[in-house]
What we know:
Layout: H1 5-23, H2 36-48, H3 52-65, H4 70-85, H5 89-102, H6 109-123, H7 142-157, H8 164-191, H9 195-208, H10 215-228, H11 232-245, H12 250-257
Helix pairs in contact: 2-3, 2-4, 3-4, 4-5, 5-6, 6-7, 7-8, 8-9, 8-10, 9-10, 10-11, 10-12
Amino acid sequence: MKKFYLPLILILATLSLSACSFFEKEEIKADESWSVERVYAEAKAALDLGDYTTAITYYEQLEARFPFGEYAQQALLESAYAHYKNDDPETAIATLDRFMRVYPLNPNIDYAIYLRGLVNFHRDIGLIEKYIPRDESQRDPGAAEDALRDFTRLVKQYPTSRYAEDATQRIVYLRNRLAQHEVNVANYYMRRDAYLAAANRAKYVIENYSRTPAMPEALVIMAKAYKVMGMNDLSEDALKVLELNYPGHTGVAEVRQTRID
């Protein structure tokens, strides 16, 4: 059995190299005689077909050969989208930042901000998570916070933009997600008897993410944490807010039954 092991590896390696050679693409290069319209058309056609690598190559060549004018601006913006679809969020964001810095008066600046939000919105989703979703409130909140800033900027600066409605819906979703993340962290601290840290996290939710579904749980955590620490006035204040805004919530009884060791 062992004597076939090495030859088998060699055969597989040979087949692998042959396959790579067989499927290796020719160099993509715009002809020197092509006009800016032709280079752009080739790039846009590749983009529409989902061949993002080819599209990016043509966009880069267009920008190098024709660095000024309307086509160069559009090429830079569309190349950012191609990088985003090609699972290269860092380059997409860098390209968008350059576009907004160099062309601040471009009529598509609202789309650039919106696209930046989309890139950040999806930035922390790994390959496995695309097929096996997990609770998004458990993820690192950094990218979600960046996306929230982008979409908020769009809605404030360009309220009549065609992308404003979608951005507004994403803002609601991101606020809910970030609020729940803070509550998750607060619960983690509660389980480890870090009551002050838990209370501060819950307070952050109340101050920054009002009217989110995580609010009542944050109030419960804050009331419990303050009660355990002997800060009865602060605990009662949190409990009153909970009772006033969420009458009949089960957390009220939980706080009342919380024992102080």
